[in-house]
Design a protein that fits this description.
Largest sheet: none
Number of helices: 20
Shape: globular
Number of strands: 0
Radius of gyration: 21 Å
Strand content: under 5%
């Protein structure tokens, strides 16, 4: 019944041809899907389920994704930048040295998919993502590829659950995750590549194949830079030669673009300097009177401290990864809704009720699209941010207080 409701919800989303003009309704649909999602998680955790239930879980997840893959791209224009980068690469141009506003590159623009954000910024996407962009041409090709990687991640999660002797039904936590489904099947975000390679990496680490695990962790880093912060978890109790291996794979990935020199990081540095969106703790640091550089320094220090905490407490690898990635997003100046897909695979291994809720409430992070679609600035509402994050932080605080009392 829940599976049918979830599918019906996403079919309704996919049937709307102009979602960018109906963002409030879309957010309502996503929150409704979130209620069904949390109900499904409760059943998985508290009710014995059989093979039929697992088939329903997986089938519902696949159908929901297919429904959105067939719909037009919505909520983002990132996929158009992926296309532009791919065209530039196929022409033999280094994407780290150019940007869409250059007049001599006007031929790479298309009227159907204009680039209106980041026009003066070189690409900030790492080399493995750029390699994939060069091999895809149409919007649908991007969407189907990233959805395919998303479903491949689901398959890896099933292997992980089996290897860790956990119920396969916990795959629902990823298969029905609203943030995951909307980010890849509808919006076509390339984070699917980073999440897939990270899941593969963690699987090989779990079964003791550390060399392969480090290679895939480096590939995840070469897809989206966030994966680097997990390296200390992988190195705990291991030979430091693995750190050299990680660095070697990363260097090999950047080698074809080496002529860009310092411009290799220009796009990312411009993004870090100029963007701030859907943030929570970082915004509080700014409200406390800190400049953006000061707030960034505090946030980086706290994030590194969190890594040190997981190592000192010797948290289980899955929990350590979950704590680090969620903490990174809570401290980051940019925590767009699709970023919360980064830790979704680890929720299947270490379910956390507050972070499951975050997978639902992050839909409110799309609210700035309403004004942006009308030609206004992309700006977060303090009220929407409070509604998005306050329940999550409240639940985290209650959980920590309970854990502290139990430890006494």
């Amino acid at each position: 019944m829940l599976g049918c409701g979830l599918v019906a919800d996403f079919l309704a989303i996919g049937a709307e041809p102009r979602l960018n003009q109906h963002v409030p309704e879309l957010i309502t649909w996503l929150l409704a899907a979130g209620i069904l999602y949390l109900a499904g998680v409760y059943l998985v955790e508290h009710v014995p389920l059989g093979g039929v239930a697992l088939a329903v879980i997986l089938a519902s997840g696949v159908i929901a994704r297919v429904a959105l893959c067939l719909a037009p791209v919505a909520l983002t224009q990132d996929i158009y930048r992926y296309q532009w980068d791919g065209r530039v690469e196929r022409a033999g141009i280094n994407p780290y040295t150019v940007y869409p506003a250059m007049k001599r590159l006007a031929r790479f623009q298309t009227a159907a998919h204009p680039i209106t954000t980041g026009r003066f910024v070189p690409t900030l996407y790492p080399p493995f993502s750029e390699w994939l962009f060069a091999h895809l041409r149409t919007v649908q090709a991007f969407k189907w590829t990233f959805t395919g990687l998303d479903l491949a991640t689901l398959a890896v999660i099933l292997l992980l659950l089996r290897a860790m002797k956990q119920p396969l039904h916990r795959s629902l936590i990823y298969a029905w995750n609203p943030a995951v489904i909307i980010s890849f099947a509808l919006s076509g975000h390339h984070d699917a590549l980073a999440v897939f390679t990270l899941a593969v990496s963690f699987y090989f680490s779990t079964i003791g194949q550390q060399t392969v695990a480090i290679i895939f962790l480096a590939l995840s880093f070469l897809s989206k830079l966030f994966a680097a912060i997990l390296l200390p978890v992988y190195l705990r109790g291991k030979r430091w030669a693995y750190a050299v291996l990680f660095a070697a794979v990363a260097a090999l990935g950047y080698y074809p673009f080496r002529r860009a020199g310092v411009d290799l990081i220009r796009g990312f540095s411009d993004y870090a300097r100029g963007w701030e969106g859907n943030d929570s703790l970082f915004r509080l640091l700014r409200w406390a009177g800190n400049s953006k550089p000061q707030a960034e320094l505090i946030a980086v220090t706290l994030a590194l401290g969190l890594v040190g905490f997981t190592l000192r407490e010797r948290l289980k690898p899955a929990r350590a990864c979950l704590v680090i990635l969620s903490g990174l997003l809570f401290l980051s100046p940019n925590a767009f809704p699709w970023y919360f897909t980064w830790f979704a695979p680890f929720l299947c291994l270490e379910p956390s009720l507050p972070l499951l809720l975050m997978s639902v409430t992050c839909a409110l992070g799309y609210s700035p699209v309403v004004a942006y679609a009308a030609g206004q600035a992309y700006r977060n509402s303090p009220l929407m941010l409070m509604l998005e994050y306050a329940p999550v932080y409240g639940w985290l605080m209650v959980a920590e207080i309970k854990r502290f009392r139990e430890a006494e």
